[in-house]
Amino acid sequence: MCFLLSCIPFVFAYAQEYKYEIGGMGGGAFYMGDVNKNTPLKGLNPALGITFRYNANFRVAFKGNLTWAQLSGSTNGLDNVFPNGLQTSFTRNAFDLGGQFEFNFFPYSDKFAYLKTKRIAPYLLLGIGGTVATGGDGTFAALNMPIGVGVKYKMKNRINVGLEVSVHKLFGDGLDNKDLNDPYKIKGSVMKNQDWYTFMTLFLTWDFGPRNRKCNSAKGIDALMGLSKK
Fold first, then answer.
1. Considering only the top CATH level, what class is 18-210?
2. pTM: predicted TM-score of the whole model, two decimal places
3. What are the residue ranges spanned by the domains of the chain?
4. Cα angle at 111 between 110 and 112, to 5 degrees?
């Protein structure tokens, strides 16, 4: 009997832990490519998105994002000279749909202190996605690979906030415009003639989907409380 009673607080503690998160994010984005080789934050534009996360355990999560961002660039003021004195600029609306694997450096939760969980956890992410960019001189589409870091904080039960920076490597050139699609006529490779963009976002998510455990089912709780019907 004592064991059953001692299980009750354990039941309700686990009933507060959730498997899923859903929410939104907002921040900035910038492009790196033929007209921005190595200057972070140049041409910073807005970015907005929605996110869904499945928390497999305290350290591992799988996330899906749908993000819109404006990306832009210009040859104006550049030191390097393009063939035939090319002067051009572009502005694109980019849509990024992708999935990512996240690894938390600390076990992430605001409960279960005996498991050394933390309300705050830095994390690494790696994934795969697809990019479609409209505007300019046509539609561009390519796969991308996001790599990044972030930090998440459990504000209170069910509410998470965080900051994330992800660099997206495109497997294709032409995000900018047709004039900048291999302007030097150099044979492309994984690292050459490929465009990149970076998201810097703040996110807010809400937990849902209690974890199913044998001990916290309605029948199990009734049995523990001595309320089961014969």
1. mainly beta
2. 0.79
3. 1-17+211-230, 18-210
4. 140
